[in-house]
Amino acid sequence: MGQLPLFEQMTSSRPAILNVYTGFASSAPISSLQAIEARGAIPLIAWGCAPVTAISAGDYDARIRAFAAALRALRYPVFLRWFWEMNLPTREAVSCLGSAGPSGYIAAWDHIWTIFHDTDATNVAFVWCPGVGGQAQWASFFPGAAYVDWIGADGYDRKHLGSEAFSAIFDKWYSAYSGLGKPMMVAETGATAVDQMAYLDGIAGTLPTEFPAIKAVVYFDAAGPNGQWELGAAGLSAFRSLASEPYFSYRGGSGSP
Question: What does the alpha-carbon distance between residue 182 and residue 170 come to, in Å, rounded to a whole number?
Fold first, then answer.
């Protein structure tokens, strides 16, 4: 949050969504969420996973219920992205899934959703978010439209595809799920410094016409385990240009989804 005023100055924009990562064992990061809402943005919580069989068995019910109650008390919209990229063979995903696989994931997702529903945390939107790289398993991990508010995906320009990168990365995911009538979100994306201008220009040129169901794009402005995605000078310029387009302007407001 300390970097945000400078980012807003450099891009002449105020982010509509700000992402927060928190572990499953942690309490809801209320102070961070309040700071995000105070800036006029909607928090997106990336909530880590836990063994899915233990979740379904009720072992974590008290923790989940407390998390839901804390978010409900905020009384403004919050996106919740539990166990994102569950379809990718990361060490965390493998550990949390164990031998239960996709069916265990779905059972745990539905269990968490039910607790939030019973807690009346209606201000929380559930974002189902696979990684685009695990296309073969998307369907097997989908909890069902009744248990999902937003269809998300994570994908990065790792192949230096220039202005065509966004379409190449997200087209199959979009085609698979845009027919459900749910709002869609690119919850993590990025390009390395040499590709950022072309990548962001490609989003500006293709998203309004080819991907109208995508209602949010979240850029990962940081170093990651698989790349350096921080916006450089050219990337900041392209981001500023993108954010100035009326189509990409946040049309809500504080307390509005």
Answer: 16
Q: What amino acid occupies position 70?
A: A
pTM of the predicted model, to two decimals? Answer: 0.94
Q: Which CA distances in Å does 173 have to 136, 165, 176, 186, 215?
A: 11, 14, 5, 10, 14
Do the beta carbons of residue 52 and residue 24 sit within 8 Å? no
Tens-place pLDDT, residues 175-232: 999 999 999 999 999 999 999 999 999 999 999 999 999 999 999 999 888 889 999 9
